[in-house]
Write a structure and sequence with these properties.
The structure holds three protein chains of three kinds.
Chain A: H1 2-28, H2 34-43, H3 52-62, H4 68-82, E1 87-88, E2 93-94, H5 95-99, H6 102-130, H7 135-149, H8 152-167, H9 186-223, H10 226-233, H11 238-256, H12 258-276, H13 281-291, H14 294-322, H15 324-327
Antiparallel strand pairs in A: 1-2
Helix pairs in contact in A: 1-14, 2-3, 6-7, 6-9, 7-9, 8-9, 8-12, 9-11, 9-12, 10-11, 12-13, 12-14, 13-14
Chain B: H1 6-9, H2 19-28, H3 32-42, H4 44-61, H5 63-66, E1 87-90, E2 93-107, E3 114-137, E4 141-150, H6 169-205, H7 207-222, H8 225-234, H9 242-255, H10 258-273, H11 276-283, H12 288-324, H13 336-341, H14 346-351, H15 357-380
Antiparallel strand pairs in B: 1-2, 2-3, 3-4
Helix pairs in contact in B: 3-15, 4-6, 4-15, 6-7, 6-9, 6-10, 6-12, 7-10, 10-12, 11-12, 12-15
Chain C: E1 3-16, E2 19-32, E3 36-40, H1 47-54, E4 62-64, E5 69-73, E6 79-81, H2 90-98, E7 100-103, H3 107-110, H4 117-128, H5 133-146, H6 152-155, H7 165-177, E8 183-187, H8 195-212, E9 215-220, H9 223-229, E10 232-237, E11 240-246, H10 247-252, H11 257-265, E12 315-318, E13 321-323, H12 330-335
Parallel strand pairs in C: 3-9, 3-10, 7-8, 8-9
Antiparallel strand pairs in C: 1-2, 1-4, 1-5, 5-6, 10-11, 11-13, 12-13
Helix pairs in contact in C: 4-5, 4-7, 5-7, 7-8
The chains are: A mainly alpha, B alpha+beta, C alpha/beta.
Amino acid sequence: MLRFTLERLVGMAITMALVSVMVFLIMELPPGDYADRYAFRKYSGTGVNVTEADIQAIRVDLGLDKPLVFRYFDWIGGIVLHGDFGQAFAFETSVLKVIGNKVWLTLGILFSTLLVTYMVSIPIGIYAAVRRASVADYGLTVFSYLGLALPNFLLALILLYFANKWFDADIGGLFSSEYKDAAWSIAKGWDLFKHLWLPAFVLAWSAVAYQLQTVRATMSDEINKLSVTAARARGVPEVKLLIKYPARLAINPVVSTIGFDVNRIFSELPIVAVVLGLTELGELLLRAYLDLDMYVAGAILLLLTFMIVFMNFISDLLLAWLDPRIKLGTS
Amino acid sequence: MTTVTNGDLNNGNDQPLSAEQKRLLKYYSASQWTLIWWRFRRHRTAMIAAALLVVMALFGVFAEFVAPYGPTSRNTQYLDGSPQLPSFCDDNGCSLRPFIYGVTTKRDPVTLRAISVPDPNKRVYVELLIEGEKTDLLGFIPTNIHLFGLQDPKAKLHLWGTDDLGRDVFSRTIYATRTSLSIGVMGVFISFVLALIIGGTAGYFGGRTDMVIQRITEVIRVVPIIPLYMGLAAAMPKEWSTTQIYFAMTLILGLFGWPTLARRIRSQLLSIRNEDYVVAARLAGARPSRIIGQHMLPSFTSFIIVDLVISFPYMILSETALSFVGLGLRPPTVSWGVLLQQAQSIRVIEQTPWLFIPAVFVVIAVLAFTVIGDGLRDAADPYAEAK
Amino acid sequence: MEEMLKVENLSIAFRTDEGLIEPVQGVSFSVKEGKTLGIVGESGSGKSISTKALMRLLPGTAILGDDTKMTYRAKSGEIINIEKLALNSRKTRDLRGGEIGMIFQEPMASFSPVYTVGNQMIEAIRLHRDMNKKEAREYAIEMLNKVGISNPSQRIDQYAHEMSGGMRQRAMIALTLSAGPQLLIADEPTTALDVTIQAQVLELMAGLQRDLGMAMIFITHDLGVIAQIADEVAVMYLGTIVERGPTRDVIRDPKHPYTQGLLEAIPKLDTLTHRLSPVPGDIPSPHARPTGCPFHTRCARKIDGLCDQQTPAEISLGEGRAVTCFLHSSEGRDVA
């Protein structure tokens, strides 16, 4: 088990290293660089004539004149060694400050979404597999198609509209206006909790649709296996049988795709965040892109990917723990 | 090739085949694709979905004909106008031809501006295949015949209303269909070519090449895709022309859409390399090209096609999402996402809900592709139970 | 010698999309205490389904015949009408494993891959015997030892996929027997094993049967195994029993053309001059049952006008033998 964990950790590190290279290249992609825009921002409208030499001076000052490879190592070194993600353009402050505690908000959204997803899809998927042609079974099929077809941001808009119409509620965003800038307290936490369900619901929509089908399909397969018949032939009571044998195995594909689910949630997050007015990393990322604030964008991209890779790692560990065939190399 | 006589088929009984035997013969000698088509045909939902998609595609291809107006033409007299649905009957009686009300100019008592109000006494008839705006079908065939239009060329028919600039939602949606679907097609095509090359290399050579390619694929798969697309799209200079942006978008979408497909191709190649029937073919002395073409490829071409069909919804949704937030196609190009960008707020939903109609198209397209993909998968799987 | 299990007129039907199919029609047999009944037949003959019915293991869509009776004498002496048991009642669960046990063809597939062998054994033991965890574990180790598995105290914590094929089959036998059934149904347990292991497992089973006084129903398509292990044999074809009787008598002097064909099809090592003579044709699909005698489409001695029109009834030949064939009936003898 230890060897298995170490192998996975090393894999994680290699992947993140490669990802950081790709993120850096994306950061370098837009035309012009920080120095240009810094000079423009600082001096435009002031009547001061900015020459190319001035810009170059700024560049040297910020270390932006060095060749690509050096700049990459500067950047990644800063992150890994000092936790310094660079300077944010839009706010003229460090990226870290800008990102601030949005990381925790994003994580909060992530985990509530995952919770909703698994708590809904696993029981219903299992039930639909056991009771075929039931209401749950047909409902599941219809829902999965809808879930995959309806884009999340549209769903968010529709929900916002109805919530507004029926409840006259200010449910967009992560906080009500009173708590937005207030210090953290139990009340603020509770307010956040009340607001989390909407993004969690919207983001979980397609994840649930997908997992429902997976759970039902795996459970259907497993129910027909000989080991289940053999257990029944031993006199194991039906409900206990279903949970101990096929259900346990039906969870496997769900566990193995945790990373994939996180990936998809983060992928949909920026757009849903914009529609719902959520103040977290996804929305910040979009704004950074529109402003071409590449250091912020790169940092967020890196953080999101890291969380995904980490969840992949957790899912691998969980899967190995759940399924003895994997540890021993036979599957 | 020796000829097969009825005697061979009938246990030595050289007599004409019965109807049942003829049917069985047709079944057993059908090619793989015919079999798949027959099974697919029985899947009613998938056939309906396929029909819908074909209609949509036709709308897109012949957009100039189907849409009464161009995507950017404005009707300054009808801003934020609600949909004008033709009726057959009104207080003045019924008619066989559908009509809408003409407009008369009145002065708004509050703003004192000239506004157009529908005049219930003026009927303007809707006709099919009527002459209208001059346009170029498919971009190069000059014509001015449209699918439908108004008898009175000076009046305007806005089936699905207009936006705040007076642009006809129906026409824009039809043109958007062309853009969104074509980007989807090209994006999938590029992904497919890349996936074939990358996945094929990995699966065919195996070993270290495979490992390196695996790592690279992993990197792309691990980064959330829309943020990745957004990163590339953000880099598109503002000065680029609409055509440049269009092609850049297809490139971007295709460039990162290959990992799933490549993985599938690679794993298929690796697994069937050692299948008994491939080994048997090798032992029988078949040439490698025959082994690959006759034995290996057909076994998973159907799966690849299913995967391709299933990638379409993702491409379309990605483009829609990107354009929706302004990091994709830009006006004056119209795609479903660009159209929906105007419908971002609750105010819009409340006051001009018809701007959401492109969303319906998105949902239908995605649903249709998904259903077809499922139907194809069921039809292509030789081990699936006959339904 | 009493009959501990008596099956009369067992008929099983399934409602499918293509209509009603009846894989088993009017099957009757019995099993005596401590004796082995062999059921032999091709795949599709209905042998497995018949025995699954005995343990109410058929899916809910299965319909038993109206006059089907399955009477079983439990260990306590109580007479149980199996056909009347509900699918999931307490009594049925006690019956399964505790009274009638089943071992399967695929030992690997019969164990769940995510639980140890011991876990599954202890579960079965505690369901049918009054023991706590510790006692159950000791008992399980003892059973593993009894079936000839070395290092039982280690093996008990292993997973099924860590064992070799023969060992897995022994473990499955141990698992089933640890619940203490008095009737063991063996559904082709040796088919997936190589011949040497097959011999070992058969020997083991015969020995256990003697020691524990179990009755056994042994299902197989291998007449050689039947000859070794079965006291009585029933030959099934397309859902009906075509011949029954003491094994020795049936093999030496088969009465039904199908049985004769099966015996003739066995390759003989002493004469290498003849071609193999299989039974011609294929077993028909249950959707396309032949009218009349189910075997007539492949029978070399069929009587036209009789065998393809009417279904023969079972005819008792005395000394425990019976055959279902017109050749032995009065009608057949008249025409022939």
